[in-house]
Amino acid sequence: MTGATYTQHALTLPSYPRGSHLITSDITSQLSESLKGVKAGLLHLFLQHTSCAISLNENWDSDVRKDMSDSLDRIVVEDKANKGIYRHDAEGSDDMPAHIKSSLIGASVSIPITNGKLALGTWQGIWFLEFRDGKHRRKVLASVQGERE
Question: For residues 36 and 116, is the Cβ–Cβ distance under 8 A?
Answer without folding.
Answer: yes
